[in-house]
Write a structure and sequence with these properties.
Two copies of one chain form a homodimer. Chain A is of the alpha+beta class. The interface between A and B is large, with 52 and 52 residues.
């Protein structure tokens, strides 16, 4: 199936911003936006960014009123040294799309090759036609390698060209003071510490202002033909590598730029590491890495492809989304997945619950090693989460930060930040899912149980018994249009699940060994776990007798319903047009909240209650968050409303490709991408992983001919193919296994199973 | 009775800070802290302040997350030009308390003369003893006049003295980054626009950076004996008036400093006004103003004295408090009463509900003209309050700002700021009280009804019907340790009262004329008022059947009780040691909330419910706010718990005089001062003013011999004397009137009435 996206890019500001994001190259470690090599016109809003996952500085975040415990500084992902700038002169005239006629301007993303390509053909004012072709790759084989292949063709003339390839340390972060989702103040938090040039290779070591981190970037070039060349210093800690060459008509000249990144989070001696790695990659040569890239992606697709027949656009969009998840996710256990991946500065590179609830499910099912690395990151920030719990007044336990890079809470407005305690439940849920899908008890023993225990300890300290049962007060659920409420249905379900599983896992560990070490290390024992079990059993879940639905929280149904029909279109998303206190007073939801609980904790309610609630919340949800429609789709599918399931997925797969939220320029929406995957796999195919094992309940959307996907389950590789008349399960690899399909157990052996 | 406070001031940093506040001179228009004329030692924390009520600049107040509608700038009271600095040299040696032996250092506040006096006698290192006496006055007769009389006595020597009297424009506001109740960043928002010297008089006109205001200060001197004098410019827009004189042993030399203030809020042409007024006051001479001051205060005490026999300290403290209320309150309708009056920069000179709930009751009962001026200020900021209501999403009405100077909302953290909608009810309550006490229907017609209507309109838009009745969701009551709750008992009572009275007053206006004009001007009519009446009748007031008490809000009783006994002493006030979200989750109150409702809206509940609630809230209230114990005292008295009533008043009267909250250096606690008055008048004497008239239910605290107070009621001046065996009511002035005493109506004529 086709996994190549080719697109004409009109030469305008808006298209350029979207293109920078859509065609960015990343590998979970580095990310480089697909900016015009020669630079965008001065007046354009452009985000010229290069990022390292987890590389940040700490900046002040003053509170308007400095109440006790409020966060007063935050981590922010830094835009680091610019290595993508390459300028071209033809007979002294700059290659400038503003000053010529653009004959062609395309971008190609090849998701099998793992590269992007720009082709721009320009008729310059003097009539000369020049075509540049730029291939870019963020290597999956060598995570700190970014490769550019810049080719110039003198199409209809012979002449002198001059190529200036830059390595620039004078960079800033992007700012937009009018959008709370972006940084408001210009940041220049990177300063040059050391520069070095050697054999026309340049090295720049920069350090951050406050976080004590440093990063070295190294650049080397390789030429297709001989040319005059010179490496010159330009400005503070920047280099220009200048090439001069006479081209015959039709001749193509190519310069390959090897860019190596070495940061002090992962390396001691960043300059030494950069020099060594640059030597290695130059010696190996680009083809070595192109090949490695292909092999890596072959394995990736073999484990995770989703093939949709009958709707090529959706198929391609789905592939794009999965590819972006791969590009975005940290794989080294030292970092996570930012809300915008490594594609832009929206949400400042912070990690949210998006990872565990929307992105991890894909990796847990297809690439458990990545899932494990992401969960290990959470394990590593437990000390900071314990500190956070203390700040919030908890005597024990860990409260994960609502948004963070290195573990510290970075949310400035706690009512819709830190108060979202459900992140504790989300992370616990992900640990349990990982365990249920992989059976990796070793991870549970070493890291997973500690996460479960520490998050459960906060539930115990947060909650209290009253006549309703065990209650959780003053928390914020996923829906940020109602904050600081009592007994948010989702949060209480999530806490209940986490508490139950903490005790279950403890019993499993008892049976399988290792519990003595855990008892000693974590000062835990049967008594504490019994209190957890008791609280889980007594957990209050709000239910309204009159409507027969679950209220989102204790008082939700006492508020008036927001007049969505009477709200002007231009007032959406509501958060940009209404004071939070106004929103809090109405029944109006930014996103799936109780509905998400129905997907994750479907056994808590009868089908009828879920059905009635679904219809209720559907009418009052704006889907102002991109994490919403996919959940409505999954639960619609669960409730047998296939058409709704399909409609809610709708164009979500194309959210970024078609820029439907109008902010793709700030970065991709990774959670939505994961959500689209879930809408197909958990929604249409009805896949669930529980203690009882793997189950499926597939249906085929009307307009599709078929769809298939591959997953890993307890060391097996399975393929599920859903066609009009039949569902085919294939055990691609591994030992036989029993799967529940439409409620029937089916033993899957190496022979093909049909149902 | 004695109304003179004389106090030795030890020469140390802490005592100095408290002294600066306690002995400040103010008249509701200007306020000057009682700083050492010669300046405090460099290392001391000193707040060298001069303020004009309502004179402010606008400064940025960045939000950590810029959500829609959040306040991003605030008004802050500016420290203006320093006129109190006077330095002394004796034979070339500076008069410096650090470098000599302090033989005497006292401050005297004479509350009949309306002046403060400093006497400092210093033995300098060369053995010379010099005594300075500084008398200061902020004139009540001429509000923009501040007078200083600086006398030097050469006690045991003859020698040359040099006096330098300063007029300094280079000033900043005080800052303390560690206390949220003070400004965190140093402000220099005043710049010199124009200076002028004329006949040894100096004039400095300054303008603010952002608010567009300007102020001219004018200074003239008068000498007791001839001396050499020179006016010199010193630094940017500052003047020094230098006097040289040889003193014989025992000789006293006095320089009188006339300081005039003219601001652009009240004057067009501030320099011209300042020149004219300076001429006038110099011509009239100081004695003219001393006399006027005495007469003014004679009238004041005649209308408002509270005389306590049997406890001189409490008597003096009570007098001090009433005097401070007079000093603090704006009287020109253009300003109000800052939380710290004009005595310091705590809370940045902002006006809160403190005015209406704690300070106005005193003026309404004793000096209705001041009450009217303060309420007129609220009327004048209605346009800003309407704007604020719009920001909060209300279609109609006005929402008064939680804290402000010129009408704009200045609270940076809305959950315990703007969300305190009860301020609307508080202001409405004060309007109604003013009407009930004075019968001033003219004010109601012109201003009062509009306040009632506009605040009621917000209640209607804020609230909604649900099965409980008419409910008010997501508001914060007076107790800031629980924020954004549903159906705060106090708020709902307050809204109910406001709605009821809006309709009552409307009927009264109908009967008394003027309603047609109001209908047209405010687009109001019977229909709208009927909906208000209906909502008031349906207003939900939370009540717990099991405990038989009123919960502070819908979910208050479902939270665990804070372990006050187990909280370390140094963790109070809790707000400085616990994250707000921690506090919100517990039953713990910063201050009287439901209990305040019992005082103001005592007819809503039976005595039994109030009694049980009282006992309940008593156990969980920290009184971290200075607005709390006085309310507990009043309600204890109401419930017949006389001992508790007395105990809760306790040392509250001395809060500032004895610096019991350890922050008097930042300014006086005006609301507490008003609260102490109420504890006696409304508490011990049981005074109430309702539609039925004036009623009393007095008791005498055991340790007192008697107490008396004077009030104005419907143009009568009354004196109430409570002694062991009897209560004496005197109609000092005005026509006969019926008063209810202990439930019996008593007709009070010019003859003395006994009961």
């Amino acid at each position: 199936m086709n996994r190549i996206i080719e697109r004409k890019i009109t030469f305008d500001e808006k298209a350029n911003g979207v293109c920078e994001t859509l065609f960015h190259n990343a590998n979970g470690y580095i990310g480089v936006r697909n900016c015009l090599e020669e630079g965008a016109p001065d007046t354009w809003d452009t985000m010229r960014g290069t990022y390292i996952n987890g590389f940040y500085d700490v900046i002040p975040m003053k509170q308007a009123e400095a109440l006790c415990g409020l966060v007063e500084e935050k981590e922010t992902m830094l835009n680091i040294v610019d290595i993508q700038t390459i300028m071209l002169n033809v007979d002294g005239v700059p290659f400038d799309m503003e000053k010529g006629t653009v004959l062609k301007n395309t971008r190609i993303l090849d998701m099998d090759a793992g590269t992007t390509t720009r082709v721009t053909r320009l008729r310059m004012t003097d009539g000369k036609e020049t075509e540049i072709t730029v291939k870019r790759m963020a290597s999956f084989g060598q995570l700190n390698l970014f490769l550019m292949e810049y080719s110039v063709c003198a199409c209809n003339y012979s002449g002198d060209i001059e190529i200036t390839s830059c390595h620039i340390a004078d960079v800033r972060n992007y700012t937009n003071p009018n959008d709370p989702r972006l940084a408001a103040e210009s940041l220049k938090n990177l300063s040059v510490q050391e520069t070095l040039e050697d054999k026309e290779q340049s090295f720049i070591t920069c350090k951050t202002q406050n976080s004590g981190l440093s990063v070295c970037t190294a650049v080397a070039h390789e030429l297709s033909q001989e040319a005059e060349s010179e490496l010159v210093k330009s400005g503070e800690g920047s280099y220009e590598y200048v090439l001069s060459k006479t081209l015959e008509q039709g001749e193509v000249f190519t310069v390959t730029k090897y860019c190596i990144f070495a940061d002090s989070i992962r390396n001691t001696g960043v300059l030494r590491t950069a020099r060594n790695d640059l030597d290695t990659v130059v010696n190996n040569g680009k083809d070595y890495y192109y090949e490695a890239q292909k092999r890596y992606l072959e394995t990736f697709w073999n484990h995770s492809e989703v093939v949709i027949c009958g709707d090529d656009a959706v198929h391609l969009a789905m592939s794009y989304n999965l590819y972006q998840l791969l590009q975005s996710s940290g794989k080294d256990g030292r970092c996570n997945v930012a809300a915008k991946g490594l594609s832009g500065e929206g949400y400042e590179g912070h990690y949210f619950w998006d990872t565990e609830m929307f992105i991890l499910p894909f990796f847990t099912l297809t690439n458990p090693q990545v899932a494990k690395a992401l969960l290990s990151y959470r394990y590593d920030i437990l000390p900071a989460a314990r500190e956070n719990a203390k700040i919030l007044g908890h005597k024990k336990g860990a409260l994960f930060p609502w948004r963070t890079i290195n573990g510290k809470e970075c949310s400035g407005y706690f009512p819709s930040g830190t108060a979202q305690y459900h992140i504790n439940g989300d992370i616990a849920y992900a640990v349990i899912s990982y365990y249920l899908t992989t059976g990796d008890l070793d991870f549970i023993r070493k890291k997973g149980f500690e996460i479960l225990l520490e998050t459960s300890r906060v539930w115990m300290d947060l909650g209290n018994y009253c006549k309703k049962g065990f209650v959780l007060n003053d928390v914020t659920g996923p829906d940020e249009y109602t904050c600081m409420v009592n007994n948010n249905y989702y949060t209480n379900c999530s806490a209940k699940y986490g508490l139950h599983w903490t005790t279950k896992i403890y019993r499993i560990l008892k049976e399988n060994g290792g519990v003595e070490e855990i008892n000693a290390r974590l000062s835990v024992g049967d008594d504490e776990l019994q209190t957890m079990e008791k609280a889980a059993d007594a957990m209050f879940l709000p239910y309204d007798e009159t409507l027969g639905i679950n209220p989102q929280d204790d008082s939700f149904l006492e508020k008036p319903i927001w007049d969505l029909a009477g709200t002007p279109k231009e007032h959406f998303p509501l958060l940009l047009h209404y004071h939070p206190l106004t929103l809090y007073r109405y029944q109006v939801c930014k996103q799936a909240d109780t509905i998400l609980a129905y997907f994750l904790f479907e056994k808590e309610q009868s089908r009828d209650v879920m059905q009635r609630s679904y219809e209720y919340y559907e009418k009052i949800t704006t889907h102002d968050s991109s994490l919403s429609t996919c959940v409505f789709s999954i639960v619609a599918s669960r409730l047998g409303m296939q058409k709704k399931g399909i409609d809610y997925l709708g164009d979500s797969t194309k959210l970024d490709l078609e820029n439907t939220h109008e902010n793709t320029k700030d970065g991709i929406h990774t959670a939505n991408m994961g959500g689209c995957y879930m809408a197909v796999v958990n929604g249409f195919a009805g896949l669930r992983v529980t203690q009882e094992g793997l189950s499926l309940h597939p249906f085929l959307p009307e307009k599709w001919e078929s769809y298939s996907f591959r997953i890993c389950f307890h060391d097996r590789l399975l393929k599920i193919l859903v066609e009009k008349e039949q569902v085919t399960l294939v055990l691609v690899d591994g030992e036989q296994i029993s799967i529940n399909v439409y409620g029937q157990n089916v033993l899957l052996t190496k022979e093909q199973k049909r149902q």
